[in-house]
Every structure is written in structure tokens, then in C-alpha cells.
Design a protein that fits this description.
Elements lengths: L7 H12 L14 H11 L11 H12 L14 H10 L15 H12 L4 H6 L8 H10 L3
């Protein structure tokens, strides 16, 4: 997406809306995101910060959606992107990211993998026949690639 230069009409509209006391999330300028508007306000000296704050109402909306076990992807808050919602949920302690478990391959597993591969087994066959419980097709394929077999 290419950045469009602000026109004088857009800047005038922004100044008028700010002067009228319109909250940031409700400022409407065609084709401009909340972030673009906030940065332009900072550039014009209307705002002292480029940081986009959360209103009490938005926080209340986020808390209630998380309490109802709504998926973060399904939460819709006007003026907030999925990434902003996720960051706020994590930083405020409302939601925790899933920790990725890193299981190293044992020498026994590697020896078994080499033997099965020599017999013509593919990664998907190994998973479907449950030869490596807890390992995904991608994990096995990646290990085969690392071992050059």
C-alpha cells in the first residue's frame, strides 16, 4: 500500500474536527486510518504524542470479550487492529500467549528416523502410523532435511 500525501483539504478537515473536540477514534477522513490521523496530528503539533491510547470504553469492551472466551481474532474494536488488540490483551494480563514447547530430537529418534527413511517411509506416513508421537509432519520433514536424507 502506497502512502498518499495529505491534501490541504484533509489537513483543514482534521484541524476542524480536532478543534470541535471530536475523539480520535471518531475522526473521519476518507481513506485515512486512525494511525495515519494520529501521526498527522503529531506532525501538525496538535498532539504531543504519536502513541494511540485506549479509552476506558475500549478497555471495557476488550475485557468483556475476553471474559466471554471470544477468540482474539473475533474481537472487533473500532479503530484498533488485531495486533493492537493482541498487544493490549497480553500487556494488561488479560490473555497469555501459548508457549511453544521445543522438543529436541533424541539420538534414538534420529536413528529410527534414518532407518525408516532408508526403508522408503515419508514424513506423512510416519505421522499417520504414529511412529513418532507428538511430532508433526512438518517437524519430521524438517529433521529429514537437516539430516540430508
Amino acid at each position: 500500500m502506497r502512502k498518499q500525501k495529505w491534501t490541504e483539504a484533509e489537513i483543514d478537515s482534521l484541524k476542524k474536527q480536532c478543534k470541535a473536540g471530536v475523539p480520535l477514534g471518531e475522526i473521519r477522513i476518507s481513506g485515512r486510518s486512525v494511525y495515519s490521523i494520529k501521526y498527522k496530528m503529531y506532525d501538525l503539533g496538535i498532539s504531543s504524542s504519536r502513541k494511540i491510547t485506549w479509552s476506558k470504553n475500549q478497555l471495557k469492551q476488550l475485557r468483556s470479550a475476553i471474559r466471554q472466551n471470544t477468540s482474539l481474532r473475533d474481537i472487533s474494536i473500532p479503530g484498533k487492529t488485531f495486533q493492537a488488540i493482541k498487544n493490549k490483551a497480553v500487556r494488561s494480563g488479560l490473555w497469555q500467549t501459548k508457549k511453544r514447547v521445543c522438543r529436541f530430537w533424541t539420538t534414538r529418534e534420529i536413528a529410527k528416523l534414518k532407518k525408516m527413511r532408508a526403508l522408503g517411509w515419508t514424513a506423512s506416513k510416519l505421522v499417520s502410523n504414529n511412529h513418532f508421537p507428538g511430532r508433526s509432519v512438518h517437524s519430521i520433514a524438517q529433521q529429514l532435511s537437516r539430516l540430508n536424507i
